[in-house]
Amino acid sequence: MSINSFGHLFRVTTWGESHGPALGATVDGCPPGVPVDAAMIQHWLDRRKPGQNKYTTQRREADEVRILSGVFEGQTTGTPVQLMIENTDQRSKDYGDIMDKFRPGHADITYWQKYGIRDYRGGGRSSARETASRVAAGGLAREAIRAIAPDVQITGYMTRMGAHEIDRSRFDWDQIEQNPFWSPDAQTAADWADYLDDLRKSGSSVGAIIEVVARGVPAGLGAPVYGKLDTDLAAAMMSINAVKGVEIGEGMSAAMLTGELNADEIFMGNDGKPSYSSNHAGGILGGISTGQDIVVRFAVKPTSSILKTRKTITKAGAETEIITKGRHDPCVGIRAVPVGEAMMACVLLDHMLLHRGQVGGQIGENRGRIG
Amino acid sequence: MSINSFGHLFRVTTWGESHGPALGATVDGCPPGVPVDAAMIQHWLDRRKPGQNKYTTQRREADEVRILSGVFEGQTTGTPVQLMIENTDQRSKDYGDIMDKFRPGHADITYWQKYGIRDYRGGGRSSARETASRVAAGGLAREAIRAIAPDVQITGYMTRMGAHEIDRSRFDWDQIEQNPFWSPDAQTAADWADYLDDLRKSGSSVGAIIEVVARGVPAGLGAPVYGKLDTDLAAAMMSINAVKGVEIGEGMSAAMLTGELNADEIFMGNDGKPSYSSNHAGGILGGISTGQDIVVRFAVKPTSSILKTRKTITKAGAETEIITKGRHDPCVGIRAVPVGEAMMACVLLDHMLLHRGQVGGQIGENRGRIG
Amino acid sequence: MSINSFGHLFRVTTWGESHGPALGATVDGCPPGVPVDAAMIQHWLDRRKPGQNKYTTQRREADEVRILSGVFEGQTTGTPVQLMIENTDQRSKDYGDIMDKFRPGHADITYWQKYGIRDYRGGGRSSARETASRVAAGGLAREAIRAIAPDVQITGYMTRMGAHEIDRSRFDWDQIEQNPFWSPDAQTAADWADYLDDLRKSGSSVGAIIEVVARGVPAGLGAPVYGKLDTDLAAAMMSINAVKGVEIGEGMSAAMLTGELNADEIFMGNDGKPSYSSNHAGGILGGISTGQDIVVRFAVKPTSSILKTRKTITKAGAETEIITKGRHDPCVGIRAVPVGEAMMACVLLDHMLLHRGQVGGQIGENRGRIG
Amino acid sequence: MSINSFGHLFRVTTWGESHGPALGATVDGCPPGVPVDAAMIQHWLDRRKPGQNKYTTQRREADEVRILSGVFEGQTTGTPVQLMIENTDQRSKDYGDIMDKFRPGHADITYWQKYGIRDYRGGGRSSARETASRVAAGGLAREAIRAIAPDVQITGYMTRMGAHEIDRSRFDWDQIEQNPFWSPDAQTAADWADYLDDLRKSGSSVGAIIEVVARGVPAGLGAPVYGKLDTDLAAAMMSINAVKGVEIGEGMSAAMLTGELNADEIFMGNDGKPSYSSNHAGGILGGISTGQDIVVRFAVKPTSSILKTRKTITKAGAETEIITKGRHDPCVGIRAVPVGEAMMACVLLDHMLLHRGQVGGQIGENRGRIG
């Protein structure tokens, strides 16, 4: 049992603090023979990198990944892959004024209470910077998936920022990479730009909802009843900083449906595989993938570090006020998109390996045939 | 790694099928010296038992638990506790007509695809009957919590059935045990009764939202970053049959808030401990308990087994229709209340043990002091 | 992490005390589609059963196994298999006089110190009776191995009892089942019979060495560096009651060899696979199977419950003496043979599943080809 | 499940290859508040470092450890500690001639068969260089033990090199650090020096036996039945490169004893704690520490890389011969002493944490009292 690890067979342990010398991911269980180099992992890290536009924190991290082990002559060896990112921008002086005060909505107070340690340098281990390690591990997972199940496509996007939601009738996969918010709806992206400008100027922040979809996932992945695909996805997403809710398919709204509306009817598709009238299930039944799109959604709370005065206490127990200066994200949800994708990649690869271990056969090949 | 186990130190493995000879929970890691007997576990199972009123399935199970190991002379010994429930009502003939057809919204099809096995006797392992094992394990967890942290109180209730939500202004803890729906709002309970009568007569079903609150939980529980308290709660709840979404505190709505609204301000309470202006965080910051109420919410989809004709396919791949006869719940969410409580109990006890293992000291005693 | 579980993907949790209502094994991760019924498991339990001849304890247990879950219509379903054995002979009155005294060489004193519980009914969880659960799980593992890798043969035998060792020049596989000691050497078996008769009459006991060999195991099994095949075998054997040493191949004697004597030279066999001049390695190099016989050996200490007066103390801390009456084995090593075989079966199956999960392909098919 | 991790709560994952850029240990679960810096870890690494005298390989590695995370202002924070050692001496050209040939007694052939990867640069992950990571982790474990249970002392030494064993009548704890072989017997150390000189000149190698003793360990550590203290020690030692056998206390010789000789009699010591007439048990009964010295012994096979011609095959399946040039150890067992100590430290700390998690209380405080 490791509290900084996740995954069954593809097992990722992240390490490192926001202002320490480095952080990274120790990835155990990556299959051998996967073609990979640092540039392939870097590609995914660059998507998450802060400071790329005015909508995210101006903290500038090169976020350059090095592969220290587990890859030889351009392919994985089956031994642990160490992915290290050195911290180049450790301006901890910005944080000096919060050495004794706890930031409301932050983990400052609970880390202090639990561990008796105050890492006042920007949150230490509780910082969203930890998610860079996840993105690196997710990049490796994507390469392994490409080798094992090349039809799988994983895409994340934002569906809501504060009160502003996308219009699903304008949903366009190709738009997602065209705007700084990973919005599949160009018009909403433009609205968000204005809204966020105002928020940033006012020193406030706002929450967001992210959706991650995996297309081309074969039926049969998932390990009931405590390694269900949705269980592991829920844990994966909820473990991301600032996430407060996770939904599969219909999600919380499933509570409002009747049985006949909710249960997706089954037909035979033209490809000789089962086909469904709808996807309220989010591609998962009984914790096992159906072959439909896997749909996960999660809510990211607004950044707690804001330029607004808030009431709080000190370590000495005195009541006081705090304003969190420094370089922060008005909508940290934006940067959660690549993180959600990375977690999806890790969970899917893990279940592919687990499936072939427990049930046998190639990925996509099933023991039970239909037709 | 066991796919039918959950928990780090308090580790529960459930086993058994809906229509096999028995089912149960193998509980490893219960601390020694906890006073417990079968009647104490039975108390919690009786709360979940079906057939108690007209709103739940008329399947009648005695659900009588036997303790086969790990308890000697009225207290736990520190060795594995085996909790077994024999299946007395195995009327599998009701299910004969679904031997070849897959029920829409059910795990029939994915279990078949994955394992190549069709347990047509009511769902086998994928049946909600598995949750009886959870309730038994949760009963044991409650007794251990009572011994270690007697101030902790765990209470579940229903907040929504279909379109009908409780009115929080009428919230009354004492109401919860007074109606068959675990509603904290008596008036809504009456509305639900009428609504469910109609649903049952029409052969339909509906979803629900369950909230589970733990009061009196000390600050400091939770193991970042992949054993966070909210991560483990999300996994625990999502692993329950038919659950499609999980929220902590503000949940999905956190996406709609600004930073200043969301971040709970901190004060000093009269008891010399930190006190908060609000609880958007649901009692968890950075994956660690704050000492506020732990608030988890989950959505249960409507029962898929309904008396409505639905389109589906057979194992042979032929398109057909199905009506699921038999004894089913119009709102399976009702019976999910004790299950959610049980999962909360297991997760909390587990984190109490993990905390004292990793950090040391008694439960409720923290390394970092305030004031 | 479960302290009463072992295995990575084929994961066995044993439960139960020597004088409780029942004991058993909860087996998670058995592949689906393995033909199995209770009689197949019973076959292996009967080999371990006490009271079969005058050389083992006269405690008579029916040791009848029931399969409570995970098997449907004669084959495994992929869900947990619960194997339960009820305790029918619970004559705990024999043990009444040791309620307060600790038996030297027994776990009585350490269980008391650790857990604060004294299960005076014959050792409770620390009794060798726990190994019945292992044999049941091993029986299931053997059936799964038969389905996945039918060439594998697992055989245990005794090589030493006290000062009396077998003569390897008389080694005969067929002899093993022909004598009550699982001796591959008929003449030594006859000597042991006389020796043990004397021991039994004198109320003493003696230790033994057991060797377990797996033939037909394909190259490539084992997961370096902490899931090495030899690492897992060492843990598996050392976890058996009364075991004090474990050796692989040459074992402790490897310390006496020079490099040129120890390193098995490699040739090409007639079957187109690598062939070795000798097997000092015990079939394992770098923690991975070579395709040679896997050879494990372990030492079982003499039974501590003897009819000789020994000095000890009471719970109250008073010095006293003890004679352990009751029904005991003069050479408990005899009954350890089927237990060692069972552990070998569990470890091998586990590594077959792990291998196909992590590396892919069928068992016996390797990624790296020679020739 | 991670195959490159060990430990329950103090969980160490090692990573890195002999000739890659770096190697190290990701240590999760170290308690917070342990005073530690790089120099403290370096101290233990320096003991293992090769090239210190003519008896070990002349490969020169600075083996300088860096702490990349988990330590802040001189103490552990409770978050993962990353211990990295860069490889400065990567002279892989020495190994060029073994690109296609498999070295007898090495993991070359099994890694190739399993993973389909040949890391010809000195063994890659299977190299004994991996043990540097263990020693680093063990150094951290020692500091944590010092904080939690300051009376514990862990000492390793060599008891046998080939045919030459120490004379226990000359055993002297103070001698161990006085000779290059960690021998507790000065006279045998002198004999070994001559013997090893001859071996080195002849290009041969020899095996060894190492004993590791932990003094001052409180009674009560160990988690039956699959997390027994001896089980975990057996796995820990057997996972070290080249180890072929592990013994606890009397070890394999227990097979030769009678019950009355083997079972250590119990008295009351002057300190009010149980005291034993002897220590055949090696300080462990039923998998739980007794308070006596914990005694573990393991055999290290002779180095397989020797300057003697040996028969082998190529990847293409051709029979050939090989001489392994390069810088190697005539008795690799010497360097295994600090590794054995490190594993003992990790296992003991892990069980201290596990014990306080599962049973509660301070280390050394027991639930069951005697007297």
From TrEMBL, chains A, B, C, D:
Q: Name one GO biological process term.
A: amino acid biosynthetic process
Instruction: Answer whether the UniProt record assigns the keyword Lyase to this protein.
Output: yes
What keywords sit in the KW lines?
Answer: Amino-acid biosynthesis, Aromatic amino acid biosynthesis, FAD, Flavoprotein, FMN, Lyase, NADP
* Enzyme's top EC category: lyase
Q: What is this protein called?
A: Chorismate synthase
UniProt binding sites for FMN:
R125, S126, S127, N241, A242, G286, K301, P302, T303, S304, S305, R327
Tell me if Ubl conjugation is a UniProt keyword of this record.
Answer: no
Q: What is its EC number?
A: 4.2.3.5
Per the UniProt record, the lineage of the source organism begins with: Bacteria, Pseudomonadati, Pseudomonadota, Alphaproteobacteria, Rhodobacterales
Q: Which PANTHER family match?
A: CHORISMATE SYNTHASE
Subunit (UniProt) = Homotetramer.
Q: Which reaction does it catalyse?
A: 5-O-(1-carboxyvinyl)-3-phosphoshikimate = chorismate + phosphate
Write down how the cofactor binds this protein: Reduced FMN (FMNH(2)).
Annotated CDD domains: Chorismate_synthase (cd07304)
Provide a GO CC annotation, any one: cytosol
